[in-house]
Amino acid sequence: MMTRGMADVMGILNVTPDSFFGASRIQDEDALEARVEQIVSEGARCMDIGACSTRPGAQVTSDRQERERLEWSLPVIVRKNAGRCMLSVDTFRPEIARWCVSEFGIGLVNDVSGGCDEMFRLVAQTGVGYVLTSALPVAQGAGIVRGTCAFFEQRLEMLSGMGVKLEPQVILDPGFGFGKTLDENWQLLAGMSELQSFGLPVLAGLSRKSMAWKLLGITPEECLPATVAMNMAALERGAAWLRVHDVREAVQAVRVFGRLS
């Protein structure tokens, strides 16, 4: 499931009414089919389906709402995708993840919560791929890069102890924008190469994040050039995956970077 060498692109597909980037919100079947085709045709290797917004300040969607959104969207996505792209579900709820894996053959669970015993057991039992996100504030004085590494060390030990095969099942996500200040996000990007010490693929989820548009005094809609720049910085620091709204631009960045390296 994971690759070495040239990075892969994960396209974001939100079936939510309140994701922070308005253009990414999908609310009807025609728009959903068009987005699936766009993600695939522009060269993404994975499609990340989110039915519960995790943007800062968002009201958490109930279990029932999240499942209802996935119940109408996943059959359409699976049919339209036709096996061309790996499918991921962006959820922190183990029961939702288990249902998606068993009913729809989802190959990857993107869990922004940092994990829990029930989620880890699911990963161990099913062999599904798992994105482990560092989403919690680090201990005061630890430093964001060192604190993120400590978080991953602890969680990876838990996963391994439950029987998860870290390679090839686990991808590490440093969690840009989750539980971090603006300065910490930039420090983490600058020091992201230290995460290579775990020997696991690292995912960079920088697309149109506030760390860029707040810095520049612009809006998420104006943030594509900054996103490309941040993605190039992440590639330079060893990112194996780019999670993005704008697949074509990310694929181009990966190809350019690959030509240089």
Structure, explained:
Helix 2 links the parallel strand 2 (46-50) and strand 3. The chain has ten helices and eight strands. Helix content is 45%, strand content 14%. Helix 1 (29-41) packs across helix 2, helix 3 packs parallel to helix 4 (117-126) and helix 7 (182-190) packs across helix 8 (210-216). It has an eight-stranded parallel β-sheet. The chain has helices at 29-41, 63-81, 94-104, 117-126, 144-161, 166-169, 182-190, 210-216, 224-236, 247-260, and strands at residues 8-14, 46-50, 86-90, 108-111, 129-133, 170-173, 203-204, 241-244. The chain has 261 residues and is of the alpha/beta class. The mean pLDDT is 91. It is globular and about 40 Å long.
Descriptive labels:
single chain; 261 residues; alpha/beta; 8-stranded parallel β-sheet; 10 helices; 8 strands; globular
Q: Widest sheet: strand order?
A: 6-5-4-3-2-1-8-7
Strand content: 5-15%
Structural class: alpha/beta
The main β sheet shows up as: 8 strands, parallel
Computed Rg: 17 Å
User: How many strand elements?
Assistant: 8
Low-confidence sequence ranges: none
What percent of the residues sit in helical stretches (DSSP H or I)?
40-55%
Element order, helices and strands?
EHEHEHEHEHHEHEHHEH
Mean pLDDT: 91
Task: State the distance separating the first and last CA atoms.
Answer: 23 Å
The global form is: globular
Number of helices: 10
